[in-house]
Amino acid sequence: MQKQSFLHGAAVLALATAIVKVIGALYKIPLVNVLGSTGYNYFTMGYNIYSVLLTISTAGLPVAMSRMVSEAATLGNERQIKVIYKAALAVFMTIGVLGSAMMLLFAQQLANFMNSPNSVYAIRALSPAVLFVCIMSSFRGFYQGQSNMTPTSVSQVLEALCKLVIGLGAAYYLTNLGKSPEVAAGGAIIGVTVGTIVGALYLFRLFLKTTSAMGRTGTELSLGVTMKQLLSIAVPISIGAAGLQIINTIDSKIIMGRLIYSVGLTQLEADSYSGIYGSAQTLFNLPAAFIVPITISVIPNVTEQLTLKNRRAALKLEQSAYRITTLLALPCGIGLAVLSEPIQRMLYSRYSDGELEVAGALLAILGVAVIFNCLVLLTNAILQAHGHAMVPVVTMISGGLVKLGINYLLVGNPEINIVGAPIGTLICYAFITTMNLIAMKYLFRQKVGLGRIVLKPILATAAMAVVAFMVNDVLSTMISPSIACVAAIGLAACTYVVFVLLLRIITYDDCLLLPKGKKIARILKIRPENR
Questions:
Q1: What is the pLDDT of residues 358-394, one digit of tens each?
Q2: What's the angle, vertex CA 431, arms to CA 426 and CA 433, rounded to 5?
Q3: Contact 258/111 with Cβ under 8 angstroms?
Q4: Each residue of 266-307: pLDDT tens digit?
Q5: What is the three-state SS of 78-134?
Q6: 265 — alpha (psi -120 to 50), left (phi > 0) or beta?
C-alpha cells in the first residue's frame, strides 16, 4: 500500500480534481449551449434529486471508514481493516439498491415534487448511478483511510471522461434528431451513470490485487461490532450532510414555486431562470472541488496523529490545511465576483443580453459565497477528525434552515426574484462558518494565525482583483470580450502568485509536506522559521 503525506495526498487529489474539472467544463459549458437554459434546468433538477441520495451514501460512510481504517493501519491491524471494509460494503450496498430503486420507480413523483415535471427523464437515467457510486465509495474509503489517494483520483478521471464523451455525445445526438429538451437532458445525464459503472469496475479490479497482497496481522472485531462503530461515526455526518442537501433540494422546489406563484412567471420562464441559476452554481461549485482533496486528506492524517497522542503534529497539519484553503478560496471567489458577467459571456454563447445580465448578478454574489463554502468544508473535516461529528450536523442544518427562510422571502419578492437565491446561499455558508469556528475554539482551543491565514491572503487577493477589473475593463473596449476576459484572468493570477511569494504566506513546513518539498522550498527561497 502506497502511503502519502497530507499535502502529498491532497496534491494527488488536487491534480485529479483539476483534470476532472477541465473535463467537466468541456462537458457542462457546451451542454448549456446545447440544451439551453430550459433543458439545463431539467438536467439540474434531476441531478438535485440524485445529489440527496448521493450525499446520504457518500458523506458519512467514507469519512467513518477512512477514520477507522486509519486507526487500524496506524496500529498495524490489517485483519481489522478487512472487517471494516466488509461492514462498510454491506451498508453501502443496502443504501445503493434502495436509492436506485427509489429514483427509478418514483421518477415522475419526484419530478412533480420539484415543480419540474419534465425532469423525469433525467431522474430515471441517473437511477443506476446511486448503486455504483455506493460501490465506489466503499473502495475509496478503504484506500483513503490508508492515506493512498491515487485510486480515488484515477476513478474520478475515468468518471469524468465517460461523462464527457457519452453524456455530451448523447445530448448532441438527441438534439440533432429534434428530440425535446427534456429527452436530450436525460441523454446527457446517461454519461454520469456510465461513468460511475466504469469507475466502480476499475476500483474493484484494483481492490482484488491490494487485498490479496495484504497480510493478516493484528486482531479483528466481529462484523456486528465493527458495523456498530462504523454507523456511530457515519450516521451523524450523513444526517448533517444529507440534511443540508435535502434542504437544498427543498430550496430548489421553493425557488421554482415562488417564481411561478408569487412573482407570476410562466413555467417556461421559471425553468429558464432556474437553468441560469444552475449554470452559475456550476461555477460556484468549481473552487470547492479543489478544497475537497484537502478535506479528504486531512481526516486520516489528523486522525493518525491524534491516535498517536501527538496533538502538536495534528495542529500543524490543520494550520497547513487552513493556509492552502484560504490561498485557493479567496482568489477564486473574488475573481468570480469581479469578472462575473465577462466569464458568463465567454462561456455561455447561447445566452441573450438579458440572460447574461441576470447570470452576472447571480455569479457575483455566489463568488463571495465561495469563500465561506470552502471554509465550511475544511472546518467540518477538522471537527470530524477530532471526533466531534455532531457539531457539523447542527451547524449545517441550522444554516440550511436560515437559507430556506431567506430564499422564501427574497425570491418571492418581484423586485428581487431569482437574485434572492444566491443571497440566501451566501448568508447560509457565512452562518455555518461562524458557528464552526466558535465550536472549534470552545471544544479544542483551535488557534488560527490571522497574519498568514487571513490578512496576508486578503492583501494578495485585493491586488489581484484590482488587476482583473482594470485589465478586463480596458481590453474589452479594444478586443474581443472573451479574449479580454482570458487576459484579465491570466494577469490577475500572475499578480496573485507574485504577492503570495512576496508576502511569504507559504511556510517551509508546508513545502516539506509536498513531494520533493525541500527542493520546492529552495526554488521558492522559503527558509525554515526560527523555533
A1: 999 999 999 999 999 999 988 888 888 887 878 888 8
A2: 100
A3: no
A4: 888 888 888 889 888 888 988 887 777 677 666 667 777 777
A5: HHHHHHHHHHHHHHHHHHHHHHHHHHHHCHHHHHHHCCCHHHHHHHHHHHHHHHHHH
A6: beta
